[in-house]
Amino acid sequence: MSSSWGRQVRAIVQKEWRTELRSRHGLFTAGLFGLLTVLVMVFSAYAEKPTATLAAAMLCVALVFAAVVTLPRTMIVEDEQGTFAMLQLLAEPSAAYFGKLLTNCAQMAASALVFGGVFAAMADLPVARPLVFVLSLVALSLALAGGTSFCGALVIGASNRWVLAGVVAMPLLVPVVFLGVVSLRSGFGAGFEGSGFESLVALGGYALVTLAAGPRLVAAVWRND
Amino acid sequence: MALMSAAGLGRRFGSQWVFRGVEIELSPGDALCVIGSNGSGKSTLLRILAGLLSATEGSVVRPAALGYSAIDLALWPQLTATEHLELAAALRGVAVSDGLRRVGLADAAHKPVGQFSTGMRARLKLALAVQHSPEVLLLDEPSASLDDEGRSLIEGAVAEQLRRGAVVIATNDPGDRRHATHELELG
Predict the structure, then answer these.
(1) Which of A37, A77, A163, A180 holds its CA 20 to 30 A away from the CA of A189?
(2) pTM score
(3) Contacts of A81 in chain B (CB under 8 A)
(4) B4-185 CATH fold
């Protein structure tokens, strides 16, 4: 990693947070959507406490949808408002993508920890394995951020960007959902602790692959020459 | 030695060729005016030269530092003019210059660009394009939407650019064409 690449990544992260804190679009969308989903799920299961497996699936669904509706936007918005050309002129594609990806990771990790805490508290579910639970939320959010950011970056320039991003996201996010449910389920105390850790490692590996490969793949797609 | 060159450049949209066989070679002090009717491919050619669009055929050799300003180039509406210059300087690895004062935007330095008029945006884009003292400056319809003061800023920027490198201007404005040392007609 060269110093100019690192400097560009830092500049993009700073720009992303500035624009996000002023427009608050992503924070509001993820916050409202995620919390609303969590509340609906908690109230719908008010009469009977959900099982650990069902609770893990509900929480995972809330996080997946929060990620899908907000995170690709950081990429697609550049295309929609016409600033993608400016970004191409100023920054290395891989640095621009990685800066946006880091912002998405931080936003998603914060959302996941808040939603997870609210969900567990409101559903009155004991978190039997707190370490597995917290690590699962972090790994799941990084994997979701990596997958959805990648989808958003791939569809730049397409005519039906949002539809296409959703279609591309499907095969990429199915393994994340599966692994997320298994590891969160273990966090809620179901199954063996070992199976939770195995899924956690797999989720972490998935996140690592999308974080490492994404910038290289996107650089090849964004480059015009 | 050529600062920038393009050989056998052509661009096709669908089955329709916009232009073919464009040859460009720019040396220090060259001011190339690209002229032609609407839809002749002037902006497309400049986007290819800037590296924003790929050519269907041919090749481009670009200098390390290239400046580009166009009427359809968008800015981030939430960021201020100062933040734009700071961001561009950080991404390019150059020092933040007094570019805003030079384009007459010092009073609007801390205003979000979303509140700028079209002319103010054009001035900011010019400041961004020349911030890193490019070897070649590409200007697409630079005088469109500018008042007399803005047009004189463009003239000053072109004159300064010609002292350190070359400039390519896509235009049909007679005022912009005055700078030309060469002309390339498309269409």
Answers:
(1) A37
(2) 0.88
(3) 74, 76-77
(4) Rossmann fold (3.40.50)
